[in-house]
Specification:
The chain is of the alpha/beta class. It contains 10 helices and 15 strands. This is Lactose phosphotransferase system repressor.
Length: 250
Protein backbone atom coordinates (compact mmCIF):
# COMPACT_ATOMS: atom_id res chain seq x y z
CA UNK A 1 0.00 0.00 0.00
CA UNK A 2 1.35 3.39 -0.99
CA UNK A 3 1.97 6.09 1.61
CA UNK A 4 -0.83 8.27 0.17
CA UNK A 5 -3.28 5.37 0.47
CA UNK A 6 -2.22 4.69 4.07
CA UNK A 7 -2.68 8.33 5.00
CA UNK A 8 -6.13 8.41 3.43
CA UNK A 9 -7.04 5.30 5.44
CA UNK A 10 -5.74 6.87 8.63
CA UNK A 11 -7.82 10.02 8.14
CA UNK A 12 -10.89 7.94 7.26
CA UNK A 13 -10.41 5.88 10.43
CA UNK A 14 -10.16 9.07 12.48
CA UNK A 15 -13.45 10.32 11.05
CA UNK A 16 -15.30 7.04 11.61
CA UNK A 17 -13.74 5.81 14.89
CA UNK A 18 -12.54 9.04 16.47
CA UNK A 19 -9.04 7.64 17.07
CA UNK A 20 -6.25 5.60 15.47
CA UNK A 21 -4.25 3.00 17.39
CA UNK A 22 -0.92 2.52 15.60
CA UNK A 23 -0.43 -1.07 16.75
CA UNK A 24 -3.89 -2.17 15.61
CA UNK A 25 -3.67 -0.44 12.24
CA UNK A 26 -0.21 -1.88 11.58
CA UNK A 27 -1.49 -5.39 12.31
CA UNK A 28 -4.54 -4.87 10.10
CA UNK A 29 -2.38 -3.75 7.16
CA UNK A 30 0.48 -6.19 7.76
CA UNK A 31 2.95 -3.33 8.21
CA UNK A 32 5.42 -2.29 10.90
CA UNK A 33 4.35 0.12 13.62
CA UNK A 34 7.26 2.33 12.61
CA UNK A 35 5.67 2.79 9.17
CA UNK A 36 2.34 3.85 10.69
CA UNK A 37 4.05 6.14 13.20
CA UNK A 38 5.94 7.83 10.36
CA UNK A 39 2.65 8.44 8.56
CA UNK A 40 1.17 9.85 11.76
CA UNK A 41 4.14 12.20 12.22
CA UNK A 42 3.79 13.52 8.67
CA UNK A 43 0.02 13.99 9.00
CA UNK A 44 0.51 15.75 12.34
CA UNK A 45 3.08 18.08 10.74
CA UNK A 46 0.41 19.03 8.20
CA UNK A 47 -2.06 19.74 11.02
CA UNK A 48 -4.39 16.91 10.01
CA UNK A 49 -4.32 14.98 13.30
CA UNK A 50 -3.01 15.17 16.86
CA UNK A 51 -0.53 12.50 17.93
CA UNK A 52 -0.93 10.84 21.33
CA UNK A 53 0.79 7.89 22.97
CA UNK A 54 0.07 4.83 20.85
CA UNK A 55 -1.71 6.59 18.01
CA UNK A 56 -3.62 9.74 17.11
CA UNK A 57 -6.79 11.74 17.71
CA UNK A 58 -8.58 14.23 15.43
CA UNK A 59 -6.94 17.65 15.32
CA UNK A 60 -9.08 20.64 16.22
CA UNK A 61 -9.85 23.22 13.51
CA UNK A 62 -9.98 25.78 16.32
CA UNK A 63 -6.19 26.07 16.48
CA UNK A 64 -6.25 28.52 13.56
CA UNK A 65 -5.60 32.18 14.32
CA UNK A 66 -8.35 34.46 15.62
CA UNK A 67 -9.28 35.90 12.23
CA UNK A 68 -9.56 32.48 10.59
CA UNK A 69 -11.63 31.11 13.48
CA UNK A 70 -14.30 33.77 13.02
CA UNK A 71 -15.45 31.87 9.90
CA UNK A 72 -15.61 28.43 11.56
CA UNK A 73 -18.98 27.14 12.81
CA UNK A 74 -20.59 30.55 13.18
CA UNK A 75 -24.11 29.19 13.60
CA UNK A 76 -23.00 26.62 16.16
CA UNK A 77 -21.10 29.24 18.15
CA UNK A 78 -24.15 31.51 18.21
CA UNK A 79 -26.26 28.64 19.53
CA UNK A 80 -23.72 27.85 22.26
CA UNK A 81 -23.54 31.54 23.16
CA UNK A 82 -27.32 31.83 23.52
CA UNK A 83 -27.41 28.81 25.84
CA UNK A 84 -24.54 30.19 27.91
CA UNK A 85 -26.04 33.68 28.15
CA UNK A 86 -29.28 32.22 29.53
CA UNK A 87 -27.35 30.76 32.47
CA UNK A 88 -25.96 34.09 33.66
CA UNK A 89 -27.80 35.62 36.61
CA UNK A 90 -28.09 39.30 37.60
CA UNK A 91 -25.41 40.38 40.05
CA UNK A 92 -22.94 37.66 39.14
CA UNK A 93 -19.24 38.18 38.60
CA UNK A 94 -18.57 36.45 35.29
CA UNK A 95 -15.23 35.69 33.65
CA UNK A 96 -15.26 35.50 29.86
CA UNK A 97 -12.36 33.78 28.16
CA UNK A 98 -10.99 35.01 24.86
CA UNK A 99 -11.98 33.54 21.53
CA UNK A 100 -14.72 33.76 18.95
CA UNK A 101 -17.40 31.87 20.90
CA UNK A 102 -16.81 34.02 23.99
CA UNK A 103 -17.09 37.12 21.81
CA UNK A 104 -20.44 35.84 20.56
CA UNK A 105 -21.50 35.26 24.17
CA UNK A 106 -20.67 38.89 24.97
CA UNK A 107 -22.94 39.92 22.10
CA UNK A 108 -25.77 37.72 23.41
CA UNK A 109 -25.90 39.18 26.92
CA UNK A 110 -29.33 40.72 27.59
CA UNK A 111 -29.29 44.52 27.34
CA UNK A 112 -30.79 44.84 30.83
CA UNK A 113 -28.34 42.44 32.53
CA UNK A 114 -26.65 43.92 35.58
CA UNK A 115 -23.45 41.98 36.19
CA UNK A 116 -19.68 42.32 36.32
CA UNK A 117 -17.65 40.79 33.50
CA UNK A 118 -13.92 40.23 33.94
CA UNK A 119 -11.86 39.33 30.92
CA UNK A 120 -8.27 39.19 29.68
CA UNK A 121 -9.50 39.68 26.12
CA UNK A 122 -9.49 43.17 24.58
CA UNK A 123 -12.02 42.02 21.97
CA UNK A 124 -14.47 40.97 24.69
CA UNK A 125 -14.01 44.29 26.49
CA UNK A 126 -14.71 46.23 23.29
CA UNK A 127 -17.86 44.19 22.63
CA UNK A 128 -19.16 45.12 26.09
CA UNK A 129 -18.04 48.76 26.04
CA UNK A 130 -21.50 49.93 24.98
CA UNK A 131 -23.49 47.56 27.23
CA UNK A 132 -25.43 49.91 29.52
CA UNK A 133 -25.44 47.90 32.75
CA UNK A 134 -22.49 45.50 32.63
CA UNK A 135 -19.38 46.61 34.48
CA UNK A 136 -16.26 45.52 32.59
CA UNK A 137 -12.91 44.79 34.21
CA UNK A 138 -9.89 44.08 32.00
CA UNK A 139 -6.92 42.00 33.09
CA UNK A 140 -3.77 43.01 31.26
CA UNK A 141 -0.44 41.42 30.42
CA UNK A 142 1.61 40.33 27.43
CA UNK A 143 -0.62 40.17 24.35
CA UNK A 144 -0.83 36.67 22.91
CA UNK A 145 -1.64 37.69 19.37
CA UNK A 146 -2.88 34.31 18.15
CA UNK A 147 -5.96 34.52 20.38
CA UNK A 148 -5.83 38.26 21.16
CA UNK A 149 -5.69 37.75 24.92
CA UNK A 150 -3.38 38.83 27.74
CA UNK A 151 -0.98 36.17 28.96
CA UNK A 152 2.21 35.84 30.97
CA UNK A 153 3.16 36.56 34.57
CA UNK A 154 1.37 39.91 34.87
CA UNK A 155 -1.95 38.41 33.82
CA UNK A 156 -1.46 35.35 36.00
CA UNK A 157 -0.76 37.47 39.08
CA UNK A 158 -3.85 39.62 38.49
CA UNK A 159 -6.07 36.55 38.08
CA UNK A 160 -4.84 35.27 41.44
CA UNK A 161 -6.50 38.28 43.10
CA UNK A 162 -9.93 37.63 41.58
CA UNK A 163 -12.87 35.55 42.82
CA UNK A 164 -15.66 34.91 40.33
CA UNK A 165 -19.00 33.15 40.29
CA UNK A 166 -18.57 31.54 36.90
CA UNK A 167 -15.95 31.18 34.17
CA UNK A 168 -16.88 30.57 30.53
CA UNK A 169 -13.91 28.63 29.21
CA UNK A 170 -12.89 28.38 25.58
CA UNK A 171 -10.79 25.40 24.44
CA UNK A 172 -9.76 23.88 21.12
CA UNK A 173 -10.35 20.24 22.04
CA UNK A 174 -12.91 18.38 24.16
CA UNK A 175 -12.17 14.67 24.33
CA UNK A 176 -13.35 11.95 26.77
CA UNK A 177 -9.79 10.73 27.44
CA UNK A 178 -7.53 13.63 26.38
CA UNK A 179 -9.72 16.06 28.34
CA UNK A 180 -9.92 19.81 27.72
CA UNK A 181 -7.01 21.03 25.65
CA UNK A 182 -5.63 24.02 23.79
CA UNK A 183 -2.72 24.69 21.49
CA UNK A 184 -0.46 26.91 23.63
CA UNK A 185 1.06 26.16 27.05
CA UNK A 186 0.94 29.75 28.35
CA UNK A 187 -2.66 30.18 27.28
CA UNK A 188 -3.56 26.88 28.95
CA UNK A 189 -2.03 28.15 32.20
CA UNK A 190 -4.11 31.35 32.09
CA UNK A 191 -7.30 29.38 31.46
CA UNK A 192 -6.44 27.04 34.31
CA UNK A 193 -5.88 29.97 36.65
CA UNK A 194 -9.30 31.44 35.80
CA UNK A 195 -10.98 28.09 36.46
CA UNK A 196 -9.28 27.79 39.85
CA UNK A 197 -10.56 31.26 40.83
CA UNK A 198 -14.17 30.59 39.79
CA UNK A 199 -16.92 28.74 41.64
CA UNK A 200 -18.15 27.17 38.39
CA UNK A 201 -16.61 26.59 34.98
CA UNK A 202 -18.67 26.08 31.83
CA UNK A 203 -16.94 25.02 28.63
CA UNK A 204 -17.98 26.76 25.41
CA UNK A 205 -17.83 23.70 23.16
CA UNK A 206 -19.24 24.06 19.66
CA UNK A 207 -19.46 20.74 17.86
CA UNK A 208 -16.22 20.91 15.86
CA UNK A 209 -14.24 20.79 19.13
CA UNK A 210 -15.87 17.65 20.52
CA UNK A 211 -13.77 14.55 19.93
CA UNK A 212 -10.74 16.68 18.96
CA UNK A 213 -7.54 17.26 20.91
CA UNK A 214 -4.64 19.69 21.10
CA UNK A 215 -1.25 19.57 22.75
CA UNK A 216 -1.80 21.15 26.18
CA UNK A 217 -4.30 20.16 28.86
CA UNK A 218 -6.22 23.00 30.48
CA UNK A 219 -8.14 21.19 33.23
CA UNK A 220 -9.52 17.67 33.61
CA UNK A 221 -13.11 17.06 32.54
CA UNK A 222 -14.01 16.43 36.18
CA UNK A 223 -13.03 20.01 37.06
CA UNK A 224 -15.80 21.67 35.02
CA UNK A 225 -19.49 22.13 35.74
CA UNK A 226 -20.67 21.30 32.22
CA UNK A 227 -19.86 21.47 28.53
CA UNK A 228 -22.21 23.67 26.51
CA UNK A 229 -22.54 22.53 22.91
CA UNK A 230 -24.86 22.95 19.93
CA UNK A 231 -27.62 20.74 18.57
CA UNK A 232 -25.48 19.76 15.59
CA UNK A 233 -22.67 18.25 17.66
CA UNK A 234 -21.74 14.65 16.82
CA UNK A 235 -24.05 12.41 18.92
CA UNK A 236 -21.33 9.80 19.42
CA UNK A 237 -18.91 12.39 20.77
CA UNK A 238 -21.55 13.78 23.12
CA UNK A 239 -22.44 10.26 24.30
CA UNK A 240 -18.76 9.51 25.02
CA UNK A 241 -18.48 12.66 27.12
CA UNK A 242 -21.57 11.76 29.09
CA UNK A 243 -20.27 8.22 29.58
CA UNK A 244 -17.14 9.81 31.04
CA UNK A 245 -19.30 11.60 33.63
CA UNK A 246 -19.49 15.01 31.95
CA UNK A 247 -22.72 17.01 31.96
CA UNK A 248 -23.42 18.20 28.42
CA UNK A 249 -25.88 21.07 27.88
CA UNK A 250 -27.31 21.82 24.44
Amino acid sequence: MLAAQRKTLILTTLRTDGRVVAKDLAAELGLSEDTIRRDLRELAADGLLHRVHGGALPASPAVADFTARTAIGTGAKAEVARTAAALIRPGQTVVLDGGTTARELARQLPPDLRATVITHSPTIAVELATHPTVEVIIVGGRLFKHSVVAAGAVAHEAIGRVSADVFYLGVTGIHPTAGLTTGDADEAAIKRAWSERSAETYVLGSGEKIGAASAFEVVPLAAVTAVITDSGADPRGVAELRAAGVEVVS
